[in-house]
């Protein structure tokens, strides 16, 4: 894939005490592409995700988003920069309805000046929330308390809430964890649809899941980049196959 990178990881090393979880990991995430980060358990995927999304600082190296070094960017600024991640601690509000959760997320992104704007602006918020519910397939469940949704639906709701920020870059860490095969299929379809309109980085343990939908695949193993390329490249890579054998 040609084109520029919206996000770049440059020489990322991450140490926890004496343990090195990531060693000199560099990667480019092309704008508009769906890039999957895969690897066996313990490969360092979540650590890499947490660094890309600003949850933890790298020990060495830097993350560059739209040409900007993110080291000096506090977490709360990420949404305004166009970066959203799913499955952060602020998950769904269990006692709010599904629609209210998304509306709150939409409202959180309205600047404080917009509060003084006319009622039309608030109606627009409702419309926006409705469109997001439709996107993730939760329109029919909009009146339900979020806490009563099935696991897969809660994760879809979290994605709708993440989308409220209208991110240009969406970061997802194992969105199908704990899902049934049916929920997993639905989530993969949703991710594929979302990736048509924005850049997506999808961290996923199960290689098979991402091969059919990704533009690029980055394979981590023991905290290092083992391979990088198109799904076809990765499928044909003997080392990758050896690492995944028996998984
Ligand atoms: P993955 O998501 O690919 O399964 P992780 O990034 O969660 O892998 O973990 C990579 C390695 O780093 C594992 O060996 C894990 O035990 C270790 N690790 C992750 N987070 C910490 C931490 N906060 N402190 C110490 N070790 C950690
Ligand atoms: Mg993980």
From TrEMBL:
InterPro entries recorded for this chain? AAA+_ATPase, ABC_AA/LPS_Transport, ABC_transporter-like_ATP-bd, ABC_transporter-like_CS, BCA_ABC_TP_C, P-loop_NTPase
What's the protein name? ABC transporter branched-chain amino acid permease
Against CDD domains, the record matches this protein to: ABC_Mj1267_LivG_branched
Give one GO molecular function term.
Answer: ATP binding
Pfam families from the UniProt entry: ABC_tran (PF00005), BCA_ABC_TP_C (PF12399)
Which keywords are on file for this protein?
A: ATP-binding, Nucleotide-binding, Transport
Q: Which ranges carry the ABC transporter domain? A: 7-247
State a GO cellular component annotated for this protein: plasma membrane
Whose protein is this, by species? Acidisphaera rubrifaciens HS-AP3
């Amino acid at each position: 894939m040609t084109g520029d990178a919206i996000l770049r990881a440059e020489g990322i090393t991450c140490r926890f005490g004496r343990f090195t979880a990531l060693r000199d990991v560099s990667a480019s995430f092309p704008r508009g592409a769906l890039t999957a980060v895969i690897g066996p358990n313990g490969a360092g995927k979540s650590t890499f995700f947490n660094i890309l999304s600003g949850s933890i600082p790298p020990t060495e190296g830097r993350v560059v988003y739209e040409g900007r070094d993110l080291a000096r960017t506090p977490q709360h600024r990420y949404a305004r920069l166009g970066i959203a991640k799913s499955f952060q601690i602020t998950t769904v509000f269990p006692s709010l309805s599904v629609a209210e959760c998304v509306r709150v997320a939409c409202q959180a992104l309205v600047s404080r000046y917009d509060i003084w704007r006319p009622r039309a602006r608030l109606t627009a918020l409702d419309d926006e929330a409705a469109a997001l519910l439709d996107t993730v397939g939760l329109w029919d469940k909009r009146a339900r308390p979020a806490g009563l949704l099935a696991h897969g639906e809660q994760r879809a709701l979290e994605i709708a809430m993440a989308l409220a920020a209208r991110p240009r870059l969406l970061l997802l860490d194992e969105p199908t964890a704990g899902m049934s095969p049916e929920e997993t299929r639905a989530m993969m379809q949703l991710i594929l649809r979302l990736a048509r309109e924005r850049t997506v980085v999808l961290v996923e343990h199960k290689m098979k899941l991402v091969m059919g939908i990704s533009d690029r695949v980055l394979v981590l193993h023991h905290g290092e980049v083992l391979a990088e390329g198109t799904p076809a490249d990765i499928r044909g890579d003997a080392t990758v196959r050896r690492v995944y054998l028996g998984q």
